[in-house]
Amino acid sequence: xxSTYRDIFKWGDKRxxxxxxxxLKVVKEKLNFSDSDLAERYLTGEMEVTIxxxxxxxxxxLERFASIVGADNVKTDDYSRASYAYGKFYAELVNLRMxxxxxxxxxxxxxxxxxxxxxxxxxxxxxxxxxxxxGGLSSVTRxxxxxxxxxxxxxxxxxxxxxxxxxxxxxxxxQSGMFGPAFxxxxxxxxxxxxxxxxxxxxxxxxxxxxxxxxxxASTGYGKIEHMVLAIKVVTPxxxxxxxCFPASAQGWDLHLIFAGSEGTLGVITEITMKVRRYMxxxxxxxxxxxxxxxxxxxxxxxxxxxxxxLPHLFRISDPEETEIAFKTKGFDGTFADWFLxxxxxxxxxxxxxxxxxDGSKAYAKQVKKSVKxxxxxxxxxxxxxxxTLKWLEQRYSSAYLRDPLMDIGIMTDTxxxxxxxxxxxxxxxxxxxxxxxxxxxxxxSHISHVYENGANLYFTFLSPxxxxxxxxxxxxxxxxxxDTINASGGSLSHHHGVGRSLAPWxxxxxxxxxxxxxxxxxxxxxxxxxxxxxxxxxxKP
Amino acid sequence: xxSTYRDIFKWGDKRxxxxxxxxLKVVKEKLNFSDSDLAERYLTGEMEVTIxxxxxxxxxxLERFASIVGADNVKTDDYSRASYAYGKFYAELVNLRMxxxxxxxxxxxxxxxxxxxxxxxxxxxxxxxxxxxxGGLSSVTRxxxxxxxxxxxxxxxxxxxxxxxxxxxxxxxxQSGMFGPAFxxxxxxxxxxxxxxxxxxxxxxxxxxxxxxxxxxASTGYGKIEHMVLAIKVVTPxxxxxxxCFPASAQGWDLHLIFAGSEGTLGVITEITMKVRRYMxxxxxxxxxxxxxxxxxxxxxxxxxxxxxxLPHLFRISDPEETEIAFKTKGFDGTFADWFLxxxxxxxxxxxxxxxxxDGSKAYAKQVKKSVKxxxxxxxxxxxxxxxTLKWLEQRYSSAYLRDPLMDIGIMTDTxxxxxxxxxxxxxxxxxxxxxxxxxxxxxxSHISHVYENGANLYFTFLSPxxxxxxxxxxxxxxxxxxDTINASGGSLSHHHGVGRSLAPWxxxxxxxxxxxxxxxxxxxxxxxxxxxxxxxxxxKP
Lengths: 542, 542
Hints:
The structure is a homodimer.
Chain A: H1 5-9, H2 21-31, H3 35-39, H4 59-69, E1 74-75, H5 78-83, H6 90-97, E2 107-109, H7 114-127, E3 131-134, E4 151-154, E5 162-166, E6 171-175, H8 180-189, E7 192-193, H9 206-211, H10 219-222, H11 225-228, E8 229-236, E9 239-242, E10 268-275, E11 277-278, E12 285-291, H12 294-306, E13 314-318, H13 320-329, H14 336-343, E14 352-358, H15 362-378, E15 382-383, H16 387-394, H17 403-408, E16 411-421, H18 422-437, E17 443-448, E18 455-465, H19 471-488, H20 507-511, H21 513-526
């Protein structure tokens, strides 16, 4: 039976991860942790959950909700409310560990149909009750918090099914609350793949992917989620918008794309029709490369993307520090192969790893791999076979779950990511790293993981000891400085995590006042009373 | 010196095209035209232009415009006003031939800078004067008409330059009024291509491409214009929106895409930053195929798009009637090769031609061509080499200019196009053809020319004798029935021609009232006084 704060901040299956030996070694070496530091268990949140704030929706109204969705699907108990109070943003996890939940939703409601959602939205609009649409709650941007209380709409309990597979069109229509694994397993069983594998894959939903404008690890080939979705159904306070499915069209601007990145502020997305691709894992080609430095790896990657050789699906570069740490944590450090690479001039501290995977027909995958190898060779790389990429794939999701045991031993660990044009990539990478490394005892691992003809993302993971007793302020300041730095150097606010509330304060600076006004006007039209995920999400009012 | 109505409806270089012998043969055979019919010259519009409607903007205001852009850049003479009264929609050309221009703009203004446009928009907003932003006037949807008079903003006179080429990012920033050939020639000279070659290429502009959401003949590989544009600057009555350039991002929904397909109703697009690709024509591979019937050609095309073999850039199928006419007009009919194809079972009346071109690296282009050949072979095709595709490319733009000489001999000739999902393609093709063939003496040529994983466009060209004395009503009824038919069978209103005013009456049915309301709300926010391309464009008010 789940009942503690710890149950909430753990991932969906409540697994207790352990920090692996390799990572422990890095923590000891780089953060100066002693064995006794490592034995500590800090802010573990093992108390039973209790919520002080009373339910702010009166009984009559709760009964009306119950009459719509059934009594079983309206929950107002403390644990349910607590479970929907936060996503997975670092500061949210600290709050949970501190057993601090000042503003939970008043109720968690699990609708069974789109029609029920229409009724709920009507009722909430009538009484001015906030609605926060929720998928897997994996938001790392404070996107699912409920500062205005109201109801959290759990779309995963019932709205989690495939509605229609069209094998001729290669499209699938799916309810927004379906989780990644169930969706992909179904598609694989009928010969397709969704091609969208964010790190949150195991605990995120199709609707969440689209609402937060996510990207999967194979996005270089398959595109971001907004490039895959063809049509949606969305319940807004101003009516149900259902766009038609065309491969492309010219009948005004594309309205479904307004909901890509809308983060619950415009309405409840209930159905999504998206492209699927043929599932042919037997054809996939993998390759890994060592480069002498970051710049040459980036140059090779850019050349691949701009040379008309076709596209890898998975395409990544780990920067020197991430590469060094990968070598340490995977036990590669000090091996013969490590020695050999050093001898060859691929020295620790400057060398970089590149991972590549390409799907498609046998001939396509082989041709792309061959072309990538040739371009990498010209940029001074050393081909190190498929296995480093395959090893990375083994932990493609689980590496995220390390955060909890690291926080148990008092380590602040967070990520931030941005999109940049090629000519600004090294600059933003340097600026963000310099900022982060300014903090004593801070490990910073950076990678590029979503690549385009014209630029790429940059993804930073940092580890540093918590400032005990001042965790939240310390983090807030550090985070603010980091976002300021990235913005000042020309990176986007986000490439695929979204904005939520954590990045909302930068929206006007980043977009300009007229752009933000346009977003607000769209919000005001669709949600005139401001009930949809209110409280500064995306920098929108209320 | 240009001065007649005929000068206006001719294309930009005022060339006098002749109907080629092949087409004359088809007209004689299929439309029953005699030699004396062919000798006729009908509604040739050779009168001097005179405009009855007085200039509706008072002198003081005209002087204020002149003080902004310079007196030379404000024109109110009859010929200038007449030149901006219409695009290239069939009924507009008939009007010109009938020397009928009831609602020209009051003035044609050619701004020199974005700053001047800002001042013009301010002034027009203050006085409620309509603004119609104009590129090459190649609209075939009544998108540049001026039912409310006001000013036509000619963006081509001065705002026609490349602002910046970024060879690292592979992007170019260009003023919206630059014509296709100048743009592409510049890009070629620095090793790039824009990849966007609509049939209107020679007389259309980058801004027009984006505002009308066009597609080029190589869109299967390079994408539609909305897939290529990364950032824009647009002057709206509510302020200047300038989006930042990122390869992709997750900072709210993508605002620049709201202007893709906005058709001048939201503001004046002044700058566009778009992807460019490496220009490597020496690598391009071409292939042409004959298929026994339309269905097998479509099946092969769909299989190519869904098999992960890479993408052709140019990818087309001509349906049996278009194929038959191509054979006749190109003098292929009755040759040995024709006989041989018939013997092999590729019979006139059911056989179809497929054209393919693939750009990119040598290895990529070869691999894609090989894969396409294998898939086509499996679908019963006969490979007929590169030359039919190359022949088609020779007349890729000029075939459009045939319309004028055909109208000279009293032939109604028009096109319509739609986007469909694969599973509905043959149905829409049949429905539209059945409708069109219902009219006596009507030639209907159909092709697929823009192809996606999930569907494609369908493009219909029809020729039929004008109903003399009742040209406009006859056409209006025929056109209405055709659009009704396509919509009823599930095609989109347009794939790449846009909506303008000619398709506006179908917008609410096609999109639904809530979607159209959302578009109207966006319009109302950006253009609260309704001065931007007013008069029902896109079905928006006013």
